[in-house]
């Protein structure tokens, strides 16, 4: 058997769990069930194994969490504040970037023109570039409209970074305003109102 080959179906249940645990710990990124199933071998049931492994880690210092269709070990939520380190941020997000990210999250897939229509101002390429550098957004499908404009959507890393299991867990507008993420301008209170479905998949400074 060469390196990277599936282990095969000759492993017993406990061995499969141990291998699954090792794969998740060794990966720098969350893994989907198809990838895990390919490594576990033919005849394995990664979904059942993941559920069992998640039960085993429930209540421990690290827990197994699912973000959309990917799985990863993460610090238990109640311990995270005690382990959080002060990070030096080289480029602080501007209000324009925060607003643009919020609009993409709630209205995706959304075009640059639609973002500008909601915000009421032009969106610089630098704002979108910064959000892409953070791996929070990525290009989506082109809209079937004149000019076939490119759409923007959030990434799995966006969900993972902000501790969201899915886009359904996005906070409401009132929660964002209470946290100081939104100002009272009417154009930004429409995040949940007139845009796309979160499950669908200037003033820059």
Architecture overview:
The strands form two sheets. Strands 1-3-2 form a three-stranded antiparallel beta sheet. 39% of the residues lie in helices and 13% in strands. Helix 1 (13-26) crosses helix 3 and helix 5 crosses helix 7. It is elongated and about 60 Å long. It is built from nine helices and six strands. The chain has 205 residues and is α+β, with helices and mostly antiparallel strands. The model is unreliable at 1-8, 86-90 and 192-205 (pLDDT under 50).
How are the elements arranged and paired?
Elements: H1 13-26, E1 31-32, H2 33-40, H3 46-57, E2 62-67, E3 70-75, H4 80-83, H5 95-107, E4 110-111, H6 112-119, H7 125-133, E5 137-142, E6 150-154, H8 156-161, H9 173-178
Antiparallel strand pairs: 1-3, 2-3, 4-6, 5-6
The CATH homologous superfamily of the largest domain is named Winged helix-like DNA-binding domain superfamily/Winged helix DNA-binding domain
**CATH structural architecture of the largest domain:** Orthogonal Bundle
CATH class type of the largest domain = Mainly Alpha
Tally of separate domains: 2
Low-pLDDT sequence parts: 1-8, 86-90, 192-205
Strand order of the largest sheet: 1-3-2
* CATH T-level fold name of the largest domain: Arc Repressor Mutant, subunit A
Looking at the structure, what is the overall shape?
elongated
Distance between the termini: 55 Å
Number of distinct helices:
9
Please state the average pLDDT score. 79
Strand content: 5-15%
Describe the biggest sheet? Answer: 3 strands, antiparallel
The number of E-state strands comes to 6
Tell me the series of helices and strands, N- to C-terminal: HEHHEEHHEHHEEHH
Percent helix: 25-40%
Gyration radius over CA: 20 Å
Structural category: alpha+beta
């Amino acid at each position: 058997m060469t390196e990277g080959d599936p282990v095969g179906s000759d492993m017993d249940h406990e061995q499969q769990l141990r291998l699954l645990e090792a794969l998740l710990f060794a990966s720098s990124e969350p893994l989907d069930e198809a990838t895990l199933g390919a490594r576990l071998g033919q005849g394995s049931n990664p979904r059942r194994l993941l559920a069992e492994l998640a039960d085993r880690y429930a209540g421990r210092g690290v827990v197994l969490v699912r973000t959309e269709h990917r799985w990863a070990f993460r610090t238990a939520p109640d311990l995270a504040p005690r382990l959080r380190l002060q990070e030096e941020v080289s480029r602080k997000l501007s209000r324009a970037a925060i607003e643009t990210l919020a609009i993409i999250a709630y209205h995706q897939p959304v075009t640059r023109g639609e973002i500008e229509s909601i915000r009421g101002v032009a969106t610089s390429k630098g704002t979108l570039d910064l959000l892409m550098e953070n791996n929070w957004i990525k290009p989506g499908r082109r809209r079937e409209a004149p000019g076939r404009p490119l759409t923007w959507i959030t990434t799995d890393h966006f969900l993972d970074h902000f501790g969201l299991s899915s886009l359904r867990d996005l906070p409401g507008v009132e929660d964002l305003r209470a946290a100081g993420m939104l100002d009272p301008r009417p154009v930004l209170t429409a995040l949940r109102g007139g845009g796309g479905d979160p499950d669908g998949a200037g003033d820059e400074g």
